[in-house]
Design goal:
Elements (H helix, E strand, L loop, with lengths): L2 H14 L7 H14 L8 H7 L5 H4 L33 H13 L2 H20 L1
Length: about 130
C-alpha cells in the first residue's frame, strides 16, 4: 500500500468496522485478510479490530496445533472467497502473526526484535485482559 495513504486507509477501516452490530464472521474476515496481507507488509489495525470485537479473540487464542502454524494448508480461511461471511475466517487463527513474530526475531537485531515481539505480546495481553 502506498505510504501516503496508509494512515488514512487504516483510519477508515477502523471507522467503518467500529460498529459492534457487525457480524463476527465479517469482522473476522477483515482481520484474517489484513493478517494475511501482513506477510508482505507490516500488520496495522488488527489489534484495534480485535479490541473492538472481543468475539474475534478466538483468532488469537485458538491453539496453533489445530491450525497449521507455518502455512495455510490446513487453514479453513478461504482468502479467495469474495463474500467475507462465507470465508470461514472465524474458524481460523492468526498464524501469520506468529510467523511475523518469528521472522522479526530472525531478521532484526536482538534489541529490535525484542521490542517488536514485546509489543505484540503486550497487545495480546491487553486484548486478553479486556
Amino acid at each position: 500500500m502506498h505510504v501516503k495513504y496508509r494512515a488514512r486507509f487504516f483510519r477508515l477501516v477502523d471507522l467503518f468496522l467500529s460498529s459492534t452490530h457487525l457480524p463476527d464472521q465479517l469482522v473476522a474476515s477483515f482481520i484474517r485478510r489484513m493478517s494475511r496481507l501482513s506477510l508482505t507488509s507490516p500488520p496495522h489495525g488488527i489489534v484495534n479490530l480485535i479490541r473492538r470485537h472481543p468475539s474475534c479473540m478466538v483468532l488469537i487464542h485458538r491453539p496453533s496445533d489445530s491450525i497449521s502454524s507455518t502455512s495455510d494448508e490446513s487453514d479453513p480461511y478461504d482468502f479467495d472467497e469474495p463474500d467475507p461471511i462465507k470465508s470461514n475466517a472465524i474458524d481460523s487463527s492468526l498464524w501469520e502473526m506468529k510467523l511475523f513474530e518469528t521472522e522479526t526475531k530472525r531478521n532484526k537485531s536482538k534489541k529490535e526484535s525484542e521490542e517488536a515481539c514485546s509489543g505484540f505480546r503486550k497487545a495480546q495481553t491487553r486484548l486478553s485482559s479486556g
